[in-house]
Protein backbone atom coordinates (compact mmCIF):
# COMPACT_ATOMS: atom_id res chain seq x y z
CA UNK A 1 0.00 0.00 0.00
CA UNK A 2 1.44 3.39 -0.96
CA UNK A 3 1.81 6.22 1.54
CA UNK A 4 -0.94 8.10 -0.34
CA UNK A 5 -3.34 5.19 0.25
CA UNK A 6 -2.46 5.30 3.95
CA UNK A 7 -3.64 8.88 4.34
CA UNK A 8 -6.57 8.73 1.93
CA UNK A 9 -5.41 11.66 -0.20
CA UNK A 10 -5.09 14.07 2.71
CA UNK A 11 -3.26 16.77 0.72
CA UNK A 12 -6.21 16.96 -1.74
CA UNK A 13 -8.53 18.20 0.99
CA UNK A 14 -9.16 21.67 2.29
CA UNK A 15 -7.47 20.94 5.60
CA UNK A 16 -3.90 21.66 4.50
CA UNK A 17 -4.55 23.61 1.30
CA UNK A 18 -7.24 26.05 0.18
CA UNK A 19 -6.27 25.93 -3.45
CA UNK A 20 -3.98 24.47 -6.11
CA UNK A 21 -1.76 26.66 -8.28
CA UNK A 22 -2.63 26.19 -11.96
CA UNK A 23 -0.49 26.78 -15.05
CA UNK A 24 -2.02 28.88 -17.83
CA UNK A 25 -2.08 25.93 -20.25
CA UNK A 26 -4.03 23.90 -17.68
CA UNK A 27 -6.86 26.41 -17.21
CA UNK A 28 -9.09 25.45 -20.16
CA UNK A 29 -8.70 21.64 -19.82
CA UNK A 30 -9.53 21.83 -16.09
CA UNK A 31 -12.53 24.05 -16.69
CA UNK A 32 -13.78 21.60 -19.31
CA UNK A 33 -13.59 18.92 -16.64
CA UNK A 34 -15.81 21.05 -14.39
CA UNK A 35 -13.24 22.75 -12.18
CA UNK A 36 -13.46 26.36 -11.09
CA UNK A 37 -10.19 28.08 -11.97
CA UNK A 38 -9.73 31.71 -11.03
CA UNK A 39 -7.24 34.30 -12.16
CA UNK A 40 -5.35 36.11 -9.41
CA UNK A 41 -3.85 38.46 -12.01
CA UNK A 42 -0.29 38.67 -13.36
CA UNK A 43 -0.71 35.31 -15.09
CA UNK A 44 -1.31 33.48 -11.81
CA UNK A 45 -4.18 31.00 -11.66
CA UNK A 46 -5.58 28.81 -8.96
CA UNK A 47 -8.22 26.16 -8.40
CA UNK A 48 -9.97 26.55 -5.03
CA UNK A 49 -10.22 23.23 -3.21
CA UNK A 50 -13.83 23.80 -2.14
CA UNK A 51 -15.51 23.21 1.21
CA UNK A 52 -14.06 19.79 1.88
CA UNK A 53 -11.81 18.54 -0.92
CA UNK A 54 -10.77 19.04 -4.52
CA UNK A 55 -13.63 18.12 -6.88
CA UNK A 56 -11.34 15.52 -8.46
CA UNK A 57 -10.70 13.73 -5.18
CA UNK A 58 -12.84 10.57 -5.19
CA UNK A 59 -12.59 8.13 -2.32
CA UNK A 60 -9.16 9.44 -1.44
CA UNK A 61 -7.81 9.15 -4.97
CA UNK A 62 -7.30 11.64 -7.79
CA UNK A 63 -9.82 10.96 -10.55
CA UNK A 64 -7.67 12.84 -13.10
CA UNK A 65 -4.38 11.39 -11.86
CA UNK A 66 -2.70 11.11 -15.27
CA UNK A 67 -3.74 14.66 -16.16
CA UNK A 68 -3.50 16.27 -12.74
CA UNK A 69 -2.04 19.80 -12.50
CA UNK A 70 1.72 20.25 -12.44
CA UNK A 71 1.52 21.60 -8.88
CA UNK A 72 -0.04 18.29 -7.79
CA UNK A 73 2.56 16.26 -9.68
CA UNK A 74 5.40 18.26 -8.15
CA UNK A 75 4.12 18.13 -4.56
CA UNK A 76 5.93 15.72 -2.28
CA UNK A 77 4.65 15.90 1.28
CA UNK A 78 7.84 14.27 2.54
CA UNK A 79 9.85 17.26 1.31
CA UNK A 80 7.69 20.02 2.76
CA UNK A 81 8.68 20.89 6.31
CA UNK A 82 5.63 23.13 6.84
CA UNK A 83 3.28 20.42 5.62
CA UNK A 84 4.97 17.81 7.81
CA UNK A 85 4.55 20.01 10.87
CA UNK A 86 0.88 20.62 10.12
CA UNK A 87 0.24 16.93 9.44
CA UNK A 88 2.06 15.80 12.60
CA UNK A 89 0.35 18.36 14.81
CA UNK A 90 -3.25 17.91 13.63
CA UNK A 91 -3.33 14.31 12.38
CA UNK A 92 -0.67 12.49 14.43
CA UNK A 93 -2.10 9.00 13.91
CA UNK A 94 -2.34 9.32 10.14
CA UNK A 95 1.10 10.90 10.12
CA UNK A 96 2.53 7.90 11.95
CA UNK A 97 0.82 5.53 9.51
CA UNK A 98 2.28 7.33 6.49
CA UNK A 99 5.77 8.09 7.80
CA UNK A 100 6.17 5.51 10.50
CA UNK A 101 7.38 8.03 13.10
S1 LIG B 1 1.37 13.18 -0.98
FE1 LIG B 1 1.43 12.87 1.25
S2 LIG B 1 -0.35 13.90 2.09
FE2 LIG B 1 -0.64 13.69 -0.12
S3 LIG B 1 -1.84 11.83 -0.38
FE3 LIG B 1 0.32 11.26 -0.55
S4 LIG B 1 0.98 10.72 1.53
FE4 LIG B 1 -0.94 11.81 1.70
S1 LIG C 1 -6.28 17.47 -8.99
FE1 LIG C 1 -6.04 15.45 -8.10
S2 LIG C 1 -4.01 15.49 -7.10
FE2 LIG C 1 -4.64 17.61 -7.46
S3 LIG C 1 -5.67 18.31 -5.58
FE3 LIG C 1 -7.24 17.52 -6.98
S4 LIG C 1 -7.50 15.37 -6.43
FE4 LIG C 1 -5.57 16.08 -5.56
Task: Explain what this protein looks like in three dimensions.
The chain is α+β, with helices and mostly antiparallel strands and about 100 residues long. It contains five helices and five strands; from the N terminus they run αβαββββααα. It has helices at about 5, 25-30, 70-75, 80-90, 90-100; strands at about 20, 40, 45-50, 55-60, 60. A three-stranded antiparallel sheet has the order 1-3-2. A two-stranded antiparallel ribbon has the order 4-5. A hairpin with a 2-residue loop joins strand 2 (about 40) and strand 3. The chain is globular. The model has no long low-confidence stretch (mean pLDDT about 90). The structure holds iron/sulfur cluster (2 copies). One iron/sulfur cluster (SF4) binds near residues 62 and 64.
The gist of it:
With 101 residues, the protein is of the alpha+beta class.
What spatial order of strands do you see in the largest sheet? 1-3-2
The unreliable regions are none
Count of DSSP strands: 5
Terminal CA distance: 17 Å
Task: Report strand %.
Answer: 15-25%
Number of domains: 1
Task: Record the SSE blueprint.
Layout: H1 3-7, E1 19-22, H2 24-32, E2 38-41, E3 44-48, E4 57-58, E5 61-62, H3 70-74, H4 81-90, H5 92-99
Antiparallel strand pairs: 1-3, 2-3, 4-5
Helix pairs in contact: 4-5
The protein binds iron/sulfur cluster (SF4) (2 copies).
One iron/sulfur cluster (SF4) is lined by residues 3-4, 7, 9-11, 77, 98.
Amino acid sequence: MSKCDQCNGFCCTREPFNSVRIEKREVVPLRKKGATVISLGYGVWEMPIGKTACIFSKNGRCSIYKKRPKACRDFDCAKSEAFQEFFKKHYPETYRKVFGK
